[in-house]
Design brief:
The structure holds 2 protein chains of 2 kinds.
Chain A lengths: L6 H20 L6 H26 L7 H18 L4 H25 L4 H19 L4 E2 L3 H8 L1 E3 L5 E3 H19 L1 H11 L1 H6 L4 H27 L1 E2 L7 H11 L11 H21 L5 H29 L1
Antiparallel strand pairs in A: 1-4, 2-3
Chain B lengths: L8 H17 L1 H5 L1 E4 L2 E4 H24 L7 H18 L6 H29 L3 H20 L3 E3 L3 H8 L1 E2 L2 E2 H18 L3 H10 L1 H6 L4 H27 L1 E3 L7 H11 L11 H20 L7 H16 L1 H12 L4 H9 L1
Antiparallel strand pairs in B: 1-2, 3-6, 4-5
Helix pairs in contact in B: 1-13, 3-8, 3-11, 3-12, 3-13, 4-5, 4-6, 4-11, 5-6, 5-11, 7-11, 9-11, 12-13
Classes of the chains: A mainly alpha, B mainly alpha.
């Protein structure tokens, strides 16, 4: 039987399909497998960040530092590989460790000193962005063989279409995210914590460990997204991924996760990212629209989705009564 | 009541520490106030002048946060109001005409009130979480501001308009008087009428206050309207100060600085009690910090790093748990032998 709790995701998927079909009818060349795959290629880093963000938001927190951590990762990778000649095999794991540590520290401060996540991750955002400029205020271009290979390798699929290595990384992260959320003890603890921290504590769940783990996970995802972003841009720059945290939060919300915590699915977030991608694709297909229309349309769609979900949840609430 | 329990103690201590640092580091540059052509000049005056828009936005943000909400769209509203005013003035034949100036100000404040109403309706009537409801306008608002300016930077040559942000009255920058007026109105409305109590009760417990007969819907709409109004005035001051409007960059990240000012001022993001004076001090701390960082010759690119650490330190000091941990460490620090004795007693 179709469960009521999946309705929100079903709506997100349905709206994605409608928007994609609308684009297909309007523009020639829109309806192809490659356009869908391009959505994944261009948004691989956003997908990875959004997975970490979903976990954080499910616990009722928020992580504003993700965009800056991506920028910092690109900057450090570029500097170490390009200017200090470190091998990528050392740099990439190092980045993941640094990102996780960054998240771990923020999580520990949030939990042990009871400071609001908004403020702590805001400080994290300033710090990571600032550290980028400490390294350099200019763009550092990467021409390392490994990075260019990662950027240019196309994996051909039957039917003549292709994906990049980043897409595979993103899909693995999503699969891992779904596994953690629904098939591990950590996942159950995360949902319990988001539902009610006090109840979780009284039930004897490891609240401290879970909360810190969530921010560590988000830091790890941001660093991984930063690595993927480095493949995508082949450069390090302090202004990379500016405002990406808002895109990630918007994707998570469009995917049906409640900002109050306790409710949300990685699978919904996946489609939330794709919907944003489709909007951008449609606007680029339209061609004549100025760039600022992207912002206005995304804002408008955000509004429609939220309104729709609001009506939906209101109906669910009345049905329960 | 012990002095360090007062809600203004930690913000004031922070500001005092910053001022003290400057007293030792660069007393000449920082504290000298000169009179030139009947106007006061000096770093302290600059802090007040440049801090004026931030203080205004933060005052509006305080009442929104007091209701348990948050307004992420203020930066965009700052950009929109500046763009609207500059567009209106740049179209006029005589840019110094008083009627044109009035029209520009009325238009930009009008549009900001509309946007505030939009936020308020989304939060109160439709019941969307504030952070999401205002995120919509934060994203779309930048687009609207660029739409108004057609992606260009609009420059105006109006002395009358420039007066708002860079003129002076009685030797002090005119913007300070605007801030004082808005602050006074906010304090009078919230502390001399029941409105402040309504706001706090809505922030504390929305359903309980509804059961107590408070029309929380109108209270919510009113605070978002007020926040929009404050952002609009800040936008006017900012754009008038540089006589131009930039839809893309004006007021960028203002929402974050404003929220920071409110939190430093002691108002909790979860809503309830709010402190307008605390916010005022919080905004001054941020502005003083920025000025100090520039003055001690820290390269501008690492300003953000310094800011991050200061934010963290300020928040840690304000965290009750952190202070308790520190005090406990201090009090329980004994010599090993003493610890043994304590164990056996």
């Amino acid at each position: 039987m179709f469960k009521q709790k999946y309705l929100s995701i079903a709506v997100t998927v349905f709206l994605f399909a409608v928007m994609f079909l609308a684009g297909s009818f309007r523009y020639t060349g829109f309806f192809s497998l490659q356009v869908i795959l391009n959505l994944l290629i261009d948004n691989a880093f956003l997908l990875i960040v959004a997975v970490g963000m979903t976990f954080v938001i499910v616990t009722g927190g928020i992580d504003l530092s993700v965009g800056s951590v991506i920028a910092l990762t690109t900057m450090m990778s570029a500097s170490l590989v390009q200017e200090h000649g470190w091998p990528p095999a050392v740099v990439i794991p190092l980045m993941l460790v640094i990102g996780s540590l960054f998240g771990w520290v923020m999580g520990a401060i949030i939990h042990y000193f009871k400071i609001q996540p908004f403020i702590v991750t805001l400080a994290g955002m300033f710090l990571a962005r600032g550290l980028c400029y400490v390294i350099s205020i200019n763009t550092i271009t990467i021409d390392d063989a490994f990075y260019t290979k990662m950027a240019q390798t196309k994996i051909h699929l039957p039917g003549g279409s292709f994906i990049s290595i980043s897409v595979i990384i993103a899909l693995v992260v999503i699969a891992a995210g779904i596994y953690i959320a629904h098939y591990t003890r950590l996942g159950r603890n995360i949902y319990a914590l988001g539902g009610s921290e006090q109840s979780a504590l009284l039930m004897g769940l490891p609240v401290a460990r879970t909360k810190i783990a969530v921010y560590t996970l988000s830091g790890f995802c941001s660093a991984l997204a930063g690595v993927v972003f480095t493949f995508y841009m082949l450069s390090g720059y302090g202004l990379h991924a500016m405002g990406l945290e808002l895109d990630a939060i918007a994707s998570v919300v469009i995917g049906g996760t409640l900002l109050t915590g306790g409710v949300g699915y990685i699978f919904g977030t996946f489609f939330g990212v794709l919907i944003q991608g489709v909007i951008q694709t449609i606007i680029s297909f339209e061609g004549t629209l100025s760039s600022w229309w992207t912002k206005i349309v995304i804002g408008l769609l955000l509004f429609l989705f939220i309104l729709f979900q609001r009506v939906l949840s209101a109906r669910q609430a009345t049905q329960k009564l | 009541m012990r002095i360090h329990k007062h809600h203004l103690f930690w913000p004031l201590a922070m500001l005092a520490a910053l001022l003290l640092f400057n007293l030792f580091y660069s007393p000449e540059e920082f504290y000298t106030v000169q009179v030139r052509n009947g106007h006061l000049y000096g770093t302290l005056i600059d802090i007040l002048n440049f801090g004026a828009p931030l203080i205004l936005v933060a005052i509006g943000m305080t009442v929104v946060i007091a209701t348990g909400g948050i307004d992420l769209s203020v930066g965009s509203i700052v950009a929109i109001s500046g763009a609207m005013a500059c567009l209106t003035i740049s179209k006029g034949a005589d840019q110094d005409a008083l009627g044109l100036l009035a029209e520009a100000i009325a238009l930009s404040i009008g549009i900001a009130l509309l946007l505030g109403l939009w936020n308020g309706l989304l939060v109160s009537v439709i019941g969307i979480q504030p952070i999401i409801a205002t995120l919509i306008l934060m994203v779309a608002g930048r687009g609207i501001a660029q739409l108004i300016t057609s992606g260009q930077i609009i420059t105006v040559t109006s002395d009358r308009y420039g007066y708002i942000g860079s003129g002076s009255l009685l030797g002090l920058p005119f913007s300070i008087f605007i801030v004082v007026a808005v602050f006074a109105v906010a304090v009078l409305l919230t502390r001399r009428t029941a409105l402040g109590l309504f706001i706090e009760s809505v922030g504390r417990n929305p359903s309980a206050s509804r059961l107590a007969g408070i029309r929380s819907r109108y209270v919510l709409i009113a605070v978002y309207l007020f926040c929009g109004l404050c952002a609009a005035i800040a936008g006017l001051i900012l754009s008038s100060n540089v006589s131009s409007a930039d839809g893309n960059n004006a007021g960028l990240w203002y929402e974050l600085d404003a929220i920071l000012a409110v939190v430093i001022g002691g108002t909790s993001l979860t809503g309830g009690r709010f402190y307008l004076t605390g916010t005022l001090i919080g905004a001054l701390i941020i502005q003083t910090l920025t000025t100090t960082i520039y003055m001690i010759g820290v390269p501008p690119e690492i300003t953000l790093v310094v800011k991050a650490f200061v934010v963290l330190v300020v928040c840690l000091i304000q965290s009750e748990t952190f202070r308790k941990t520190l005090v406990q460490r201090w009090q329980t620090r004994r010599y090993p032998a003493e610890r043994e004795v304590a164990k056996h007693v």
